[in-house]
Structures are given as C-alpha cells and as structure tokens.
C-alpha cells in the first residue's frame, strides 16, 4: 500500500499534466506585449475635426448678417490651425488696447509712472508763497480728486496758507483733444476729452432730484474719499423733447442743458468733461479752500516759465505702468489708452500734433516692429470705427509677444456660459483675452489653454458695417438690434473656442 501511494505521487495523472502545460502556455503568451491597449487610444485630428461642430454651421447659426474673420494658432510652434477670412480687416474696437499696451510697455517700460507736480516760482515766507503757483499735468489718466487732495496736503504740511502771485494750470504735456471720437454723441462719458492734465477720467457726475418747484441738480468731482461740488461744468434743466443733452462751450465754460422729460424722480450719470484743465483747476481750488488755503482763480498756460527760483513743492505719481495697463484692460478705460499711446509717441518721436498723428506713429510701430501688414489706427482706444486690423495680423502680434510675454498676465479671464447663461464651473478651455464692442462690431483676441494643456493664440472679429453706418445719431448710444446682435456675436466666439478645444486638444 505504501509503495502504491509513492508510485502515484511520482507519476502524476494525465489531467494534472495537461493543466500544468496550459498554465505554462498562458504565462508565455501573457509575457509578451498586449495585442490591444488597456487605455483608449487618442483620436486622430481628422476624427476630432469631423466630430466638432463645423465652422460654417457656427457662423450660420449666429445670424450676424455681416462679416466674420478669425485665426487660431498653436502658441508654441506658431502653426496656423484654422482660419476664416484671415486677412480681411475689421474694426478691432477695444482689442486695440492690446496693441496700445504693447506699444506703451515697449516704449516706456513697465516701471514708468505718470507724474503731476505743483511748481512755485518764488520762496515761502511766513506762510505766503511769494510768486506764482503752477499745477502741471503729466498726462496721468488715473489722477482723481483724492490725488489732488494729497497735493494740497503736501503744501499744507510745508506751511502754505496763500500766495502773492497768480495760479496757473498747465496741460501742454500732451495735445488737447476735445473728444476721442467726434462722431459719437456729445454726452457719452466714455468719449471724453484728452489733455496733459486729466481728472476723474475727464468725467463729472450729474445728479438730479425732483422737488415741488422743479429739479434740484448738482455736478461733482467724486472720488473714493472726496466729492467736491463743481461750478464748471454747469447744467440746467429745460423744457424740450429732444435732444436729451446739449452742450454749449465758450472759452472758459461748459454749459450743459438736459431735457426735463428725460429725467425721472431722481438719478445720476457721468457726463464727459470737454475742458479738463479748467475742471481740474476748479476742483483743486475747492479742495485747497477746504484745507484753509486761499488761491486765486487759475489761468490756463501751456508751459512753465524758465525762472531761476522755480521749484517743485509737491508731486503725485501714478501706479507703475504695468498696473495702470492691467486696470485699463480690465475696465477698458478709453482715456487711459489714449494717454498711454500719446505719451509713448511723445517719447519716440516728440510731442505729436494730434491724437491721430500719435495713432499713425503707433501704426508705423506695429507695421515695422511687429510685422503686421493690414493694421491702421486712428486712436489708441479703439473707440473710432475707422481703426482696422486683420485676424492674421492680430495673431501674429500675439505670437510675437509669446505665451510667457508681458501681455497675457495682464489680460482678464473670459468666462464660458451654459445654455441658461450661467458661468461654467469647468469650461472646455481657459481663456484670457481682450474684448471689444462697438455698435454691430464685436472682437475677442488673446490666449487659450485646453484641458490637456495645449496652448492656443486666437483672434475673432465680427462686424456688420453697412448696418452700423445706417444708425441715426440720436440712437448711437443704444441702437435698435445692437444688443441682440452683440449677444449672438459673443455666442459665436464661445462656440468657436469650444470647437478648437475639442478639435485641437490632442
């Protein structure tokens, strides 16, 4: 019995041998490379393009009744991935501010600061300044009533209580421009004047309240801390139907009138200032009076006299240019763009004669330094509809600066919205860009990053210029159909970005 058991142990049965051979064979087979990946293979570009919504469909669904042009490129290689009307020129609207940003940074440097000064022509004796006082503008677009108060504090701390001479305001650092775009309605606050001395973005706040005997109106130069009342500009309520606002300018005055029928029970709005030097001088005089410093009425001067006793007694500086431009791109402030562009042109080629001359200098810079071929500018903010650039040139400019260049970190994030208009928590692509909007004109240009990390540079322009040309001047603030058109244009921009995120995320 024992030997029989030993014999069975040494000679395994047929089934056991076959099972062992099966295991060995399976091990050999599994030791090689798998015939199929356990992870899904990346889809080919051709397949991704085929499954993405077609460009023709995206444009047709937008129903813009105008022209559309775009270019999207790989940020690393510069290869053009997709384009439509790439060399057709469009009004870039506020996308112009990206060109101005680069123009200003390259010419002035990111550490540049605007400076506003108080200059005296005589000594201080027993609290009296024996000489004249000059408020000298340096083109600062961010100067406000609080900054003027800081200048007053400085001379108050130095012991000034009055002067024996005259007071002057100097605005000659930059050429005076009555309005950025003369074709816009006169009362639009985003279309102010431009000069070497600007205050509160060259706007004044008009406020009204209906009383039993009529309307009580005020005009003030409000900032965060100070809200001084102003006598110039002034405003009157009149009985008429149209126009809502009218402006009469004389050498020393801005006299506004407003139609009574356009006013409700109470309200307020910003109006543009057309004589910024006189406006700033009046506000400075009012603030100085509140600090116990009596100053005579200011006169306008182009330059400071060259006298041996001339001395700077107070200064105010803006933030560094990099931060000024960041805020400009975020809030799309037209005055900032114009003063930065004018200051850059002044440094490059001397003080220009006009805003248009400065814009031509920026055009030459763009075409020479950046290699654009279809760029033409009449201002630095994009408010003028005569500005032109192609999507191809815009992308070339953005590629020149590069993903890690100075522009992208200054741009604001562009949100994606779902079908209900709510911001998406996880959009298909992350976008930082500059928007641009005029009546029946919409633009978007900047940088995008897909979920898998691919970096893109793009520019999208839309415009219905024939429809824009037909807008009556009385409707230019809110023309019929413009709001809906702009909404559809923004939807087209989002759909194109979503297509590129889907197609080029490999």
Helical region count? 13
Q: Radius of gyration from the CA trace?
A: 33 Å
Major sheet, described briefly?
Answer: 6 strands, antiparallel
Task: Give the strand content.
Answer: 15-25%
- Spatial order of the strands in the main sheet? 2-1-22-21-20-19
Structural class: alpha+beta
Share of helix, binned: 25-40%
Low-confidence stretches: 1-41
Q: What CATH first level of the largest domain would be assigned? A: Alpha Beta
How many discrete domains? 2
Report mean pLDDT, rounded to a whole number.
89
**Named CATH architecture of the largest domain:** 3-Layer(aba) Sandwich
Q: What is the end-to-end distance?
A: 72 Å
What best-fitting shape do the alpha-carbon axes yield? Answer: globular
Instruction: Provide the CATH topology of the largest domain.
Output: Beta-lactamase
| Number of E strands | 22
Please name the fourth-level CATH homologous superfamily of the largest domain.
DD-peptidase/beta-lactamase superfamily
Task: Walk me through the structure.
This protein has helices at 2-10, 14-31, 45-51, 55-62, 96-108, 145-157, 276-290, 321-331, 334-349, 355-369, 391-401, 465-469, 482-503, and strands at 67-74, 80-84, 89-90, 115-120, 124-125, 128-129, 133-136, 162-163, 167-170, 203-211, 214-220, 234-238, 245-250, 253-259, 266-272, 298-301, 311-317, 389-390, 412-413, 429-438, 441-450, 455-463. Helix 5 (96-108) packs antiparallel against helix 8. 32% of the residues lie in helices and 24% in strands. It is built from 13 helices and 22 strands. With 506 residues, it is of the alpha+beta class. The longest helix is centred in the C-terminal third of the chain and has 22 residues, at 482-503.
């Amino acid at each position: 019995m024992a030997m029989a058991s030993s014999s069975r142990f040494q000679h395994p049965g047929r089934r056991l041998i076959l099972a062992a051979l099966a295991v060995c064979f399976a091990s050999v087979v599994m030791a090689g490379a798998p015939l199929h990946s356990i992870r899904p293979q990346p889809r080919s570009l051709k397949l991704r393009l085929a499954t993405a919504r077609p460009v023709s469909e995206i444009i047709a669904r937008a129903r813009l009744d105008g022209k559309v042009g775009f270019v999207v490129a790989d940020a690393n290689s510069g290869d053009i991935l997709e384009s439509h009307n790439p060399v057709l020129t469009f009004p870039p609207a506020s996308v112009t501010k990206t060109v101005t940003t680069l123009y200003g940074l390259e010419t002035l440097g990111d550490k540049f600061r605007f400076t506003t000064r108080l200059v005296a022509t005589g000594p201080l004796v027993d609290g009296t300044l024996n000489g004249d006082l000059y408020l000298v503008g340096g083109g600062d677009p961010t100067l406000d009533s609080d900054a003027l108060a800081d200048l007053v504090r400085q001379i108050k701390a130095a012991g000034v209580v009055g002067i024996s001479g005259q007071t002057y305001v100097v605005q000659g650092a930059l050429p005076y421009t009555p309005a950025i775009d003369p074709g816009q309605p006169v009362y639009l606050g985003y279309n102010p004047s431009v000069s070497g001395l600007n205050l509160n973005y060259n706007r004044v706040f008009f406020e009204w309240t209906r009383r039993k005997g009529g309307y009580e109106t005020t005009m003030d130069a409000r900032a965060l801390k100070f809200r001084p009342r102003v006598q110039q500009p002034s405003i009157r309520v009149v009985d008429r139907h149209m126009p809502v606002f009218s402006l009469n300018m004389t050498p020393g005055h801005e006299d506004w009138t407003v139609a009574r029928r356009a006013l409700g029970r109470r309200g307020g709005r910003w109006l543009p200032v057309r004589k910024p030097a006189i406006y700033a001088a009046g506000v400075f005089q009012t603030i100085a009076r509140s600090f116990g410093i009596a100053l005579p009425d200011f006169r306008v001067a182009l330059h400071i006299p060259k006298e041996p006793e001339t001395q700077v007694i107070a200064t105010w500086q803006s933030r560094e240019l990099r931060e000024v431009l960041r805020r400009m791109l975020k809030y799309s402030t037209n005055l900032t763009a114009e003063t930065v562009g004018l200051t850059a042109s002044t440094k490059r080629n001397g003080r220009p004669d006009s805003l248009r001359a400065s814009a031509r200098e920026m055009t030459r810079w763009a075409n020479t330094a950046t290699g654009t071929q279809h760029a033409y500018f009449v201002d630095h903010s994009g408010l003028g509809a005569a500005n032109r650039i192609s999507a191809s040139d815009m992308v070339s400019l953005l590629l020149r600066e590069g993903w890690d260049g100075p522009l992208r970190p200054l741009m604001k994030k562009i949100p994606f919205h779902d079908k209900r208009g709510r911001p998406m928590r996880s959009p298909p692509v992350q976008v930082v860009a500059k928007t641009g909007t005029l009546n029946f004109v919409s633009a978007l240009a900047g940088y995008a990053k897909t979920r898998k990390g691919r970096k893109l540079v793009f520019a999208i322009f839309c415009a219905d210029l024939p429809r824009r040309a037909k807008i009556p001047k009385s409707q230019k603030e809110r023309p019929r159909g413009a709001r809906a058109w702009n909404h559809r244009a923004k939807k087209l921009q989002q759909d194109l970005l979503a297509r590129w995120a889907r197609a080029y995320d490999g």
